[in-house]
Amino acid sequence: MDGIYPGYLLFKQQKKLILSYGKSETKKSERKWNIKGDVKTINTYFQENQLGKPRRYGDSFVFKAYDINDLPSKDVLNRDLDELIEIYKTQSSPSLSDKESLPKETKKFDYEVFKKDLKSAGLIFSDKIITRFVASLCTKPFVILTGLSGSGKTKLAQSFAQWICEDDKQYCIVPVGADWTNKEPLLGYPNALDENDYVNPENGVLELIQNAIANPEFPYFLILDEMNLSHVERYFAEFLSAMESQEKISLHNGKIEKNSVPSNIFLPPNLFLVGTVNIDETTYMFSPKVLDRANTIEFRVSETELQQFFNDFTPLNSDVLKGQGATMAQSFLDISRNKKAGFDENLKATLLKFFNELKKTGAEFGYRTASEISTLYYQLQTINRDLTEDEMMDIAIMQKLLPKLHGSRRKLIPVLHTLATFCIKGEMKVESEIFENLEFDFNSEKVKYPLSLEKIKRMYKGAIDHGFASYAEA
Predict the structure, then answer these.
(1) Which one of 145, 171, 291, 371 has the fewest beta carbons within 10 angstroms of its own beta carbon?
(2) In the CATH scheme, what architecture does the domain 111-330 have?
(3) Rounded distance between C-alpha atoms, residue 373 and residue 155, angstroms
(4) What does the angle CA 209 – CA 290 – CA 401 come to, to the nearest 5 degrees?
């Protein structure tokens, strides 16, 4: 309990029963109740109601006060207690709260340190991929990693979790099954034969979420590997809804816990969800609903990067990453909680231009996407101040606008042609100089948004060759 706890205090002489934000009188708490609104201490409550002075626990806070001669119904009492217990769960840290388990010091988050540690572990990722991944997590705690099989999608997610977490109980890698049709493989289900029993899957997801709720000062990571082996909308629908509405996910209908499992659970802001995706004949495509709620990062390997891998090859040893960035965990969480947003004139003009063109294929975006792009801008600047405005816009287009673009050749070709003109400086013959030019240099001074233009070219080729194209397949 670490010195704070929910508790009933009975004051017989004053005939008052107080449900309190309790504070220990024998142990000085390292924590404080994060209380919203104007809440009084018991000392103040007694003084204002002319009840004298409480014999003990005067520094605790009043959550609810009852007259013992006129107590409310049992349902009201239980509801009040349940409400305080939920508040308590977000404040206390039973598993990681003792001083010995807390980081000895805190440091400012520095992605350069993570990049250096990755290299020492035998993992090579570009600066931009690392920046995009971390900034995306801080923008919204749901990131989809797609692209070439074996390009490091799962390994990057796993490595960051190992690096930033000081305990391996703070992250969980779950292979998605092809037979998943609802949330039960992730969160379990009530036992139909025993009303007091709850069947909790062995993957540890539910325990991870409960630990994240109990320990808000530590980051937690749920990594869903091969996320699209089953229809994402079927098993992940309640997660998607809870992300946006902040409402709870129902687990069972009981009024009390079953096997330490509450009737419902919420997704805390210190829980980060990462899904890895491979596209082949065994997988399913994502719907626009899913893509709209995530930052989508595509992994590819260039000839230069492969050559660097050959030249700098180091045997993989991810164990050296464990806990190396734990002292930066608090700073990382602080960055993720700072959801600054705003639109300068250039950003507004660029987004409106893309909106009007994407609307022609039914892939226009809404307020949520625009707001998240603005936040992504801010987080990219926070993580890596060397990025230019064009580079940040390029990342935003690639991660938030292009993923929803799909359709037939007839539908896409005109739009892709126009979008390509948005990605270059000056006048160029898009089809002959870019789309049909195998030697085109995307890093030339004529290109404004190289990531996006290269992707648009691949989607164009897919539409020409196959009569259909989508972000995931191009």
Answers:
(1) 371
(2) 3-Layer(aba) Sandwich (3.40)
(3) 26
(4) 125
The residue with tokens 């009040």 is 80
CB atoms within 10 A of CB 311: 7
Query: Which phi and psi angles does 83 have, rounded to 5°?
Result: -65, -45
Q: Which fold has domain 4-92?
A: Metal Transport, Frataxin; Chain A (3.30.920)
Task: Report the percentage of the chain scoring pLDDT > 70.
Answer: 94
Give φ, ψ of 28 to 5 degrees.
Answer: -70, 120
Residue 27's pLDDT is 62
Alpha-carbon span 274 to 160, nearest angstrom: 11
The separation between CA 10 and the C-alpha centre of its own chain, rounded to angstroms, equals 43
Structure confidence at residue 474 (pLDDT):
54
- 167-216 pLDDT per residue, tens: 999 999 999 999 999 999 999 999 988 888 999 888 999 999 999 999 99
Confirm if 470 and 463 have CB atoms less than 8 A apart.
no
DSSP for 402-413 reads GGG-EEEHHHHH
Based on the number of CB atoms within 10 Å of its own CB, is 245 exposed (0-12), middle (13-18) or buried (19 or more)?
exposed
> Does the global pTM surpass 0.70?
yes
Dist. CA 107–CA 327, nearest whole Å: 6
Residue 75 token pair: 């349902």
Which residues make Cβ contacts (< 8 Å) with residue 158, sequence separation at least 6? Answer: 171, 173, 223, 318
Cα gap 337→432, rounded to integer Å: 46
The first and second tokens of residue 396, run together, are 């935003």
Task: Render 373-391 in DSSP notation, one character per residue.
Answer: HHHHHHHHHHH-TT--HHH
How far apart, in whole angstroms, are the C-alpha atoms of residue 42 and residue 25? Answer: 14
pLDDT digits (tens, 9 = 90+) for 22-63: 888 766 666 778 777 778 899 999 988 999 988 888 889 999
**Is there a contact between 327 and 106 (Cβ–Cβ < 8 Å)?**
yes
Strands (E), 38-102: 61-67
Which structure tokens are listed for 2?
A: 């670490």
258-281 b/e (C-beta count within 10 Å ≥ 16 → b): beebbbebbbbbbbbbbbbbbbee
Nearest to 428 by CA among 406, 457, 466: 457
Q: Can you tell me whether residue 92 is helix, strand or coil?
A: coil
Q: Which two tokens stand for residue 170?
A: 């703070």
Is 365 in contact with 400 (CB distance < 8 Å)?
A: yes
**Contact in structure between 328 and 109 (CB atoms under 8 Å):** yes
Q: Determine the Cα–Cα distance for residues 172 and 242; give it in Å rounded to an integer.
A: 20
Q: Where are the domains of the chain?
A: 4-92, 111-330, 339-470
Reported as a pLDDT band with limits 50, 70 and 90, residue 133 is very high
Q: Where are the beta strands (DSSP E) in 292-337?
A: 295-299
Are 380 and 131 contacting, i.e. CB atoms less than 8 angstroms apart? Answer: yes
Structure tokens at 310: 């050959």
